[in-house]
Write a structure and sequence with these properties.
Blueprint (H helix, E strand, L loop, with lengths): L11 H35 L5 H23 L10 H24 L2 H8 L2 H13 L5 H18 L8 H23 L5 H23 L5 H27 L2 H4 L6 H13 L5 H30 L11
Helix pairs in contact: 1-9, 1-11, 2-3, 2-8, 2-9, 3-4, 3-7, 3-8, 4-7, 4-11, 4-12, 5-6, 5-7, 6-12, 8-9
């Protein structure tokens, strides 16, 4: 800046800091999406030889490494104190269920198809938030949910009209994932994000470990390395999601989650020769558009609530 330039406005530095935080949040979000896509590839590769239960166990076990590191960096043992152990247990149980069903869907469907169907989670989350969180959902968001579910039907029901078994598994995973997100919404009000991730890794490792003796297949050293890698990659991806959500607003960060379909299509084509059909692409477009619209309306609603008095309720159309 030259001597003749006017001094920056008083709020210029805070605005610059806010913009930098959002940019960092986007970087973390993109990294998380890529890492989860890589995790999905590892799971699909392993699922041709090993059971979903065994894959899930190692994914959760070795995710404890980055989870423990983040707890140590974030505050150490005091960070593990919690007044809601049963809530963590429920979050772990429903999260393991979602993970198990998602991994199973990768074994039953092309990678891009399973990923596209997983995008229905925000639709279920919107619907379930009414009875479970007491949220008000107006006609616009309900309309988006209906359109999104129409897109799901297009993807899930091939020409004959019968829903593919793999699609049902993927949709069940989306329902379980939305329940897990609801539990996180409740926990995040009192718990540190790293605490939630750590206890999820512990609970999910214990739960999947219970079934391990019944599904065990001794892995080769190369496959064992892939299992270790899946855990570390999954754990780091969870931490990236946590950082992204803490740095940027959902209205900015959320849309980047849908880039997972690009990675899924690319990896599916390169590794297995899978090419998404027009049915999947068309249905996915409706689901993604509905999810983005719901995210937009939800962001507007939250901004309105913050600006208005606490007693003000969302407008009828929200």
């Amino acid at each position: 800046m030259s001597a003749s330039d006017p001094p920056p406005a008083p709020d210029a530095v805070p605005d610059a800091h806010a913009a930098l935080r959002v940019q960092q949040g986007i970087i973390w979000a993109v990294a998380a999406v890529f890492l989860f896509a890589l995790l999905n590839v590892l799971v699909k590769v392993l699922a041709s030889t090993y059971t979903v239960g065994q894959i899930a166990f190692f994914r959760n076990l070795f995710a404890l490494i980055p989870a423990a590191v983040m707890v140590a960096v974030g505050g150490g043992l005091p960070l593990l104190r919690t007044a809601h152990p049963w809530s963590h247990l429920w979050r772990g149980a429903i999260g393991v269920t979602a993970m198990f069903l998602l991994f199973w869907s990768f074994a039953l469907l092309p990678l891009a198809d399973a990923t596209a169907l997983s995008f229905s989670a925000p639709l279920f989350l919107t619907a379930l938030a009414v009875p479970l969180l007491g949220e008000k959902v107006g006609v616009y968001r309900w309309g988006a949910v209906i359109v999104g579910f129409f897109g799901v039907l297009i993807m899930a029901a091939p020409g004959g009209g019968l829903i593919h078994a793999g699609a049902l598994v993927a949709l069940a995973s989306a329902v379980a994932y939305s329940l897990a997100m609801i539990s996180i919404r409740k926990l995040i009000q009192t718990e540190h994000p790293s605490t939630i991730v750590f206890y999820f890794s512990v609970v999910s490792t214990v739960l999947t470990g219970l079934v391990l003796p019944f599904v065990w297949v001794t892995p080769t050293w190369s496959d064992f390395a892939l299992m270790v890698l899946s855990g570390v990659v999954g754990g780091i991806a969870q931490q990236c999601v946590t950082r992204a959500q803490g740095l940027g607003p959902a209205s900015v960060i959320g849309p980047f989650n849908y880039t997972a379909l690009i990675w899924a299509a690319l990896f599916g084509w390169l590794l297995w020769g899978e090419v998404p059909g027009l049915r999947v692409l068309g249905g996915a477009a409706l689901v993604v558009a509905s999810g983005l619209f719901i995210l937009h309306r939800e962001t507007r609603r939250r901004i309105a609530v913050v600006k208005a008095a606490p007693a003000v309720t969302p407008a009828a159309g929200e």
